[in-house]
Amino acid sequence: MDDPLLPPMDAPLWSEQDHADLRMAHRILEKTSFTNQLVNILGAPIEKGLEMLPDKAHGVIVGATDKALRAALDVALKTLEKDRVATARNTIHKLATATTGGVGGAFGWASLPVELPISTTIMLRSIADVARSQGEDLNNAEARLACIEVFALGNKKESSDASYLAIRAMLAQRVSDAAQYAAQNGVLDAASPPLTRFIAKIAERFSITVTDKAAAIMVPAIGAVGGAIINTYFTGFYQEMALGHFIMRRLERKFGEEVVQAEYRDLSKQQGEQLQM
User: Fold this and answer.
1) For helices 90-107 and 223-255, what crossing angle results, to 10°?
2) Which of 224, 229, 234, 231 shows the shortest CA–CA distance to 108?
3) What value does the mean pLDDT take over residues 259-264?
4) Sign of the dihedral defined by the CA atoms of residues 118, 149, 208, 273, in that order
5) 129 lies in which domain range?
6) In a domain, 6, yes or no
């Protein structure tokens, strides 16, 4: 039996377009964090906003993040495969999340339990559109879980576990366990232990990005308009992460996971060498 991680014996040769797609995916997936993008948007660090968040904000944000991801997971398990969209409707989804962001800007971090599940579900549908545009079959449980994986890609601190491949490796076993559960039981149950563990790991990373978004809204003079702008960038950031993620998965289906990821590591090595020059 062929190893699914390796290309078949008659695997196609890499084209110039394949290499260009991989370079684009690498550029997207290793780009600056959403937090650093916020600094560029606001023109100032968000530390002031973090200081303004009350002590209870952390608990509220963690709870809102968990609720948001479970709402998104519910959509992923029940409806994503029924939607048939040939191309990604990124602009429509940005406008929709901008509206919910306006609520956040007007009412601050305390609105997150209401706003975040709505905006996260809208974002998931946008991510699913991107997945389809890269050839994903969302009738497949593992492909739907890959859509949820995107929410773990926004937090990139300067550490060895922040690279795209490191995050994929960290989540691989949990994705595998959940997909295996689906294969054995014929359904993905959101309350099952494999799905609960999967969501917990995603929430661990997503909540950090959400905290930074909440802090940005707390910066003086942001208000409702600023909240809408921040949510638009928030959505756009994850749409880009989705594009990079699903380009990688498309190339892995074509050439094999190990081959593509080795090429990706070479690009990272080349980038590191250029930065040292």
Assistant:
1) 140
2) 224
3) 97
4) negative
5) 16-272
6) no
